[in-house]
Amino acid sequence: MTALHSSAPLEPGAEVDLVVTGIAHGGVGVARHEGRVVFVADAIPGERVRALVTDAKKKSFARATTVEVLDASADRREHIWAEASISRAPEDRAGGAEFGHISLERQRSLKAEVLADAMSRFGGVEFAAEGDDDLASALAEIVEPPPSFIDEETDEPEADTGLGYRTRVRLHVDPETGAVGPYAARSRRVIPVESLPLATEGVNQIAPLADLMPGVETVDLVDPSGDDPRMLLTLSGESQRSGASDPIHEWVEDRGFLVRAGGFWQVHRAAPAVLFTAVRDAVSDLIADGRFEPGAGNLDLYGGAGLLAAAVAEAAGTGVKIATVESDAAATEDAAENLSSLVGALAHTARVDRHLADLLKASAPVRDRLRRGTVVLDPPRSGAGNGVTAQLVELSPMNIVYVACDPVSLARDTRSLRDAGYELTGLRAFDIFPHTHHFESLAVFQRA
Ligand SMILES: C[S@@+](CC[C@H](N)C(=O)[O-])C[C@H]1O[C@@H](n2cnc3c(N)ncnc32)[C@H](O)[C@@H]1O
């Protein structure tokens, strides 16, 4: 039986037995079958699994999904979401919790491996163990867990379950049946589910999981820290979401932010505070090293509603000069409001590449102020990219504080910045998407 599976050809629909030896970007295991790489979903490095081949078009690699665990890892757990478990057929598994079958500690060490591997292969940065630590334990500490919340009933810190954190969830509607649910992993098939274990209680209370919603395309559930949870609907064939521009309030510790219901806001209920604090601390370190000038041309690129510019101001004082650049006009309006207590803050609606192109044509005194400045950037998943990175290098700010949600994009941009003479002086990572393969990183670069 095993021998038959082991030698089965790699073609869609075939089942093969695989030994999973590593983890790849995207949260999939890496195995080999007759010399060819196979990316295996729902497995853990160290396991032997039987997997269904789902895609074998490429010569260099194939894709497969675990259907049975033959030798389980000690880190395998019952999936946190019954509807995403491997007891279901691959096409019936809910997507969005692809690490939900792994212990939280191992999830974090796998994320650390992905970061270290990306930094080594694309960024030219090798992770080294410090002191008596071996590399594995040094790596294990790179990805920091989110802080515990205090349970309002017991006044004790909540257990670290990695559940109940998403304040934003998008559900989809099956165009034929009207059923509402998440997409299946790697497909656009709507999977009806009984609950959303990664989402907050507020999101779960309003989630229309048992309803049929014909004529609706997407259902966005939003649970702001300062307002009641709400649902934004996109009707079939329309691009606007109902209520998307309604103002809502978010709290980051004791600081209030105005945001649009449909605008960008960090997803984990702890994430705004985690990233605010990390950027504030990075800027405080630059100040302590005499490398930060409050009156220089400081920038918060991809600035959203101004969360990270506010973090810079918390470290550098309310007299800091800083401009946010954001393509969404409504988010820029919110940033202007959120930063209104800072006399030196400006909020621009612009694409970052276009804004930087304008700055590069500015007068010599303006260019000099920008050269003495610090750039914070928090781009979408694709990263700054070669174009914006080249513009940053030409602008040549003293420091770059880069917040990244994709480790490979960060690593690629790290190489460009290092090649241009920037030194990577700090790197942290935060597990603010538990039970998924995602995590956030913060890298600090200093001009030599
Ligand atoms: C990851 S979010 C970060 C927002 C903000 N820093 C925060 O933490 O709330 C990225 C933001 O970049 C904006 N954006 C995406 N592409 C852009 C571009 N080319 N130029 C300017 N802003 C862009 C999005 O609208 C979004 O608000």
From TrEMBL:
Recite the UniProt keywords alphabetically: Methyltransferase, S-adenosyl-L-methionine, Transferase
Active-site residues, as the UniProt record annotates them: C405, C405 (nucleophile)
Q: Where does S-adenosyl-L-methionine bind?
A: Q266, Y302, E326, D378
Asked if the record carries the keyword Protein biosynthesis, the reply is: no
* TRAM domain boundaries: 9-68
In terms of superkingdom, the source organism counts as Bacteria
**Protein family according to the UniProt entry:** Belongs to the class I-like SAM-binding methyltransferase superfamily. RNA M5U methyltransferase family.
- Which named protein is this? TRAM domain-containing protein
